[in-house]
Each structure stands twice: as structure tokens, then as C-alpha cells.
Amino acid sequence: MSVDRRTAPLLVLAGVVSVQFGGAFAATLVPRIGAPGSVLLRLLFAMVILCAVARPSWRGRSRSDWGTVVLFGLALAAMNTSFYASLAHLPIGVAVTIEFLGPLGLAAALSRRPRDVVAVAAAAVGVLLVSGVLHTSWARLDLVGVGFAAFAGVMWAAYIVLSQRTGRAFGGLDGLALALIVSTVAVAPLGLTSVDRWTPGDVALGLGIAVLSSVLPYSLELVALRHLAQHVFGILLSLEPVVAALAGLVVLHQVLDRSQVAGMVLVVLASAVVLGSQARPESPDAGMGPG
Fold first, then answer.
1. Which of 18, 84, 160, 184 keeps 20 to 30 A from 26, CA to CA?
2. Is the pLDDT of residue 230 over 70?
3. Which of 53, 54, 25, 55 has the alpha carbon at shortest distance from 41?
4. Do residues 270 and 126 lie in contact, with contact meaning Cβ atoms separated by under 8 Å?
5. CB contact at 8 A, 18 and 220
6. What is the DSSP string of the chain?
7. Which residues form the EamA domain (predicted)?
8. Which residues contact 245 (CB under 8 A, 6 or more apart)?
9. What mean pLDDT comes out for the span 33-50?
10. Residue 114 CB: number of other CB atoms within 10 A?
């Protein structure tokens, strides 16, 4: 299929669907081998595939370049581990909606327009509805899951900033490939504690999650961003909470109540307002999030 301005949005949408369904399948793996083990499998396979394709160069890098890529890899590890940990406590649609405040808040902070500040405030109300804080007793509210999802959002914002810096310092896929090496090494000590529980089926599922959550969406966005209008890219990314809820329903049979759906709609609308007016990301990595 030839890619142009009409077909590029389909590639981004396919990437969003791929990421969120990858996250839903990860939610089935987390209860068996834990969040660190699940993240390690995903990162390990993604690292192997991407390094085989990119064959990143280790030479000619400054100390500043290495510092940037190490921080990028650590943010990637923390973002995915905290997000996967939240899936053990929350429906995936809820987790993605909460963590979406990270990139949304970053975009609004960089914009500083009153309209964007209002949009983020509306999104915050939406997150309160989605999390159940307003109609659930403190005894029943899963604050651990909310905390993990919120921290994943903070790390997602850091990931976006560092991915752009990495994109300026490294050509092609080199930066992301090297960052995946760092993140895999960072997660390994915790992830390997569950290796005795890994089955061939778990390893195969980890490979599938790596393809769905990392390799495929990155490749699709890399092609699409060459042809896509900036506001269209932002609006399509804003659909991630909705797609996550759909993936949770199809894969995990998770059903959200009316107030949670209303909150999700607020977050999506706010995201469309803020992200839809942002400049084109400096590197395709900026569009990738946990999942």
C-alpha cells in the first residue's frame, strides 16, 4: 500500500490499536510472572529485533550522548514497569486514561495557552471519574494501581522529552536501539526473579507483546509521520484511552461503568484539543507510549 496524506492516519490508528491490544495481552501475562518479568520479555525481544534491524553504532558518541540515551532507557524501563504493575490492579482502560495525564500535562505546560490549561483541568476531572475516587469508598479504592498508573504518566512525559533529545543526538533507529539495551539491563535484575515460572507459552506471548507494543507501532508511525499533518497525529493519539478500553473489553472482558466512560470521553476531548494543536514530534519515538 502506498502511503500518502490520506492513508497515513490509518497507519497511526493501526499503531494505536497495536499498542493497546499488546497491553491487554500483557495484562494476561502479569498475573503469572509479574510486571518486571513481563516487561523484561517485551524489552528483550524488542531489543533483539531492533538491534538486528538498526545495527546501532557504538563509536563516535560523546559523553553527553551516552548520558541522554541512558536516561532515555531508564525512563523507558520505569514507564513500562509501572504501567504493567498498574494492570495488576486496574482495568487497562482506566490505567491508560490515568497515565495519559502525563503527556497531556507536558504538552499543555509547553504550550501555556489558557485553552490548554482548561483542557487539562477537564482531563483531571475525567481521570477522577475514571479512577472511581468520587463514588468509591477509600477502603475499596485501589490507590496502589492509581499510583502506578500516575507514575507511568510522569515517566511517559519524561520519555517524550528524552526521546526527542535522543533523536537529535542519534541518527535513524540507533538511539532507540541503544536505549532498549539500557532498559533491558535495568529491568533484568527484577525480571529474572520470575524466570523459574516462565513457560514456553509465556515466552511466546512475550514475543507477541514485543511486536504489538514496540516493533509494529514504531514502524508504522515512522512511515506515517513523513506524510501526516501534525494536528491529525495528535488527535489520533488522543484515542488511546478509548482503544485501551476496547482492548480490555475484547481481550480481558473488562467493562467500565457510565461514569468511567464519561471520564474517558473528557480525557479524549481534552487530549484532542491539546495534542491536536502541537507541533510535529521531533522524533517518531514521541508518539510511543506504554502498552
1. 160
2. no
3. 25
4. yes
5. yes
6. ----TTTHHHHHHHHHHHHHHHHHHHHHHHHHHHHHHHHHHHHHHHHHHHHHHH----SS--HHHHHHHHHHHHHHHHHHHHHHHHHTTS-HHHHHHHHTHHHHHHHHHHH--HHHHHHHHHHHHHHHHHHTTTTS-TTTS-HHHHHHHHHHHHHHHHHHHHHHHHHHHS-TTHHHHHHHHHHHHHHHHHHGGGGGG--HHHHHHHHHHHIIIIIHHHHHHHHHTTT--HHHHHHHHTTHHHHHHHHHHHHH-----HHHHHHHHHHHHHHHHHHTTSPPPSSGGGG----
7. 145-275
8. 91, 92, 93, 96, 254, 256, 261, 264
9. 97
10. 8
Matching residue, cell 512475550: 206
To which residue does cell 514475543 refer? 207
Whole-number Cα distances in Å, 148 to 67, 78, 84, 205, 259: 26, 10, 8, 23, 22
pLDDT tens-place string over residues 117-152: 888 889 989 998 898 766 666 667 788 999 999 999
Looking at this protein, which amino acid is placed at residue 229? A
Between vectors from CA 284 to CA 282 and to CA 289, what angle results, nearest 5°?
A: 115
Q: In this prediction, what percent of the chain has a pLDDT beyond 70?
A: 91
Overall average pLDDT of the 99-112 stretch: 86
